[in-house]
Amino acid sequence: DKLEEGCIVNSLFLDFSKAFDCLSHNCLLQKLQTIGIVGKSAEWFQSYLINRKQQVELQYTSNNISQKYQSEPISIQRGVPQGSVLDPMLYLLLTNDHPAHLQDSCQTVMFADDTVVTLARKDKEQLLSSTEEAFTVTNEYCSSNHLVLNKSKTVQLGFTTKSKEANIMTQPGLESKKNTKHLGILIDSNLNWKPHIDQLCRKLSSGIYVIRRLSQVSNPEIARTAYFALLESHLRYGIATWGGGG
């Protein structure tokens, strides 16, 4: 819509280093209290996070004799238990106020630790200034919440239309690309789904080869299972987004 209105659009695809491992327990518990999680509920979260320990174990065999060494347990001050269904929710509870710090200067879309900040302005200089401001605010937010923004993997994508190639000024120090992958879908700066479809075709081609080989040495039921795992799962993923592209 903003492109149709004649605006220049720029998006920052933010990358956070070890997002789930860097969560500060104290900061997270304070955020939970701020949003109204108190009493027994707060105590439950505190018991879930606090007093966890980790240690390193080494085991090797020499002359048919196995030996095991363990380091001293160390208390964990950051991070959430890996593999828990609570990981994404706790991360979102910690970072849920990030868009409020950016106010109305941009649109922020968050899914777990994947965050995209999009800005639209009529003027290139104004867009560059707003992008720099949003990036500075995000850096300050990360510092105050003990998060680490990985600048080397943060990507900026300037959107254009097929009929109009805009020379978008990008934020210095950040990598600018023609397309980037977000939630498994390749997003193109020209709003063209061909790069994603081409990538999908290459992936499906290798799956078809595997199914052909399986059909020669196994029964149809195994080949059918392989089809759903190697082909249909990729075909259906995000099809509502890119399915109408050419």
TrEMBL record:
Residues 1-187 form the Reverse transcriptase domain. Pfam families: RVT_1. It comes from the Eukaryota. This is Reverse transcriptase domain-containing protein. The lineage of its organism: Eukaryota, Metazoa, Ecdysozoa, Arthropoda, Hexapoda.
